[in-house]
Amino acid sequence: MKHIIEKQKKIPVMFDVDVVVCGGGTAGMAAAVCAARKGLSVVIVERTSIPGGMVTHVTYWTSDFNNKGGFAREFITKLYNDGICIKPYYNPWPIVPYFDSLIEENKIRVLYLSNVVAPIVEDGKLSGVIVESKSGRTAIKAKIVIDATGDGDVAAGAGADFKQGRKGDGAVQAISLTQMLMNYTAGQIDYKRMCEIIDKAVKKSGKKYWYPYDKWHPGTVVGTRQTLLQSVPHATGYDPTDAVQLSDAMIEMRKQAYDLFILLKENTEEFKDIEFGPFSSIPGVRESRRIVCDKMVTKADIESGAKYDDGLFTVAQHVDIHRRDRKEAPIIVTKTIPYHIPYGALLPKGLENILVVGRCIGGEHEPLASYRIIADCMAMGEAAAIAAKFAIKGKCSLRKINVGNLVKEMSALGYVQ
Ligand SMILES: Cc1cc2nc3c(=O)[nH]c(=O)nc-3n(C[C@H](O)[C@H](O)[C@H](O)COP(=O)(O)OP(=O)(O)OC[C@H]3O[C@@H](n4cnc5c(N)ncnc54)[C@H](O)[C@@H]3O)c2cc1C
Fold first, then answer.
1. Is pLDDT at 417 greater than 90 in this prediction?
2. What is this structure's pTM?
3. For residue 284, which atom of ligand 1 is closest to its CA?
4. Whose CA is nearest to atom 14 of ligand 1?
5. Looking at ligand 1, which residue's alpha carbon is closest to its atom 41?
6. Whose CA is nearest to atom 2 of ligand 1?
7. Same domain, yes or no, for 274 and 316?
8. Looking at the domain assignment, is residue 92 inside a domain?
9. Could you tell me if the CB of 14 is within 6 A of ligand 1?
10. 417 falls within a domain
11. DSSP 49-63
């Protein structure tokens, strides 16, 4: 690749705060709200116009909340109380104003439609990030940077080592795309029946069809009468950290969605009235960079139920690998024994003043396919907020905080250790 040298440029410091949360998604929302409630000044930088990341753009299924306390418990309780969640399904859209209200109530400054493009880093010490938005290129200075981008953009940009994909060829799990379909009236259909419906439709159409994800079991979105969300499109073989490949994946998945729509509408009784709806504005990336941290959650850990002195909370979720190539089964599920996420898995090796939270924490390929779940990402966000408070109030580095007190605080919040 050719290179150019960017000219040095003076840029304005837009905010100078205790904590900048990069990415207002699943883990980022938890981190920001919990940090603000602890009296820290917080800015969230979010590239889309919507808070919640995967929670509000892509998924509609809850899991692994039983052993969680704190923010995760508050979140799921709110969903139940408001009728937004009828276990295990939830309606993602009312969560958007709910998250906005948490941002407002807790006096968090959010910058939507703003991209974190680089860390401000010297000798491995972070002191903020560079942001690009409608206001141009600006800096946000912060005592602690929380990388909640899902992809570990900030940690990787600051020089942290990272791993990606399975051993051998580095292939990551399929990327998915969520789409809304309207005027759906066929009720809940289990995936066996759905496969039969598709088989029949393919025969009737007389055309070849490759079913990208055959574990689909459609039903209307909680609280709606005729709206369906579908995430059948699955793109394998694309690197989600490569802009060109990610764009190609989007095109492939939108084609898959349209092919499925036509197949169902023209050839089945159950879907004959459905109407084509909008796509989620961001793709469902299950896996990208895993930042190398002081501790890495290993395959052996999740198979043996590893517990640590710095264990923040317990993950009780199985491993759930969506096909990494077209030859694999659509989904490979393997059991785990409930295991800890250690504090060390949030601390990128060789860097100071930064925590990673969400799916990009330190861990191997298989564990990521277990701890990436919403409840666990929220728990990581809350732990990072507590750690940030300890470091800022104690005027010490994140590695020098009293980890025993962090573990105690997580336990007091109701996170089972
Ligand atoms: C298709 C799919 C289905 C899933 N289904 C379920 C399920 O049913 N139940 C479940 O519990 N879990 C499910 N998961 C897993 C879970 O939803 C995610 O792994 C988890 O929510 C990820 O949280 P996160 O905070 O790491 O990332 P995200 O929630 O993706 O948050 C990252 C945020 O950072 C923003 N961002 C990224 N880069 C930048 C940048 N440079 N600057 C500014 N902002 C940035 C993004 O826009 C996003 O808002 C699913 C995941 C996928 C992909």
1. no
2. 0.98
3. 53
4. 373
5. 116
6. 284
7. no
8. yes
9. no
10. no
11. SSTTTHHHHT--B--
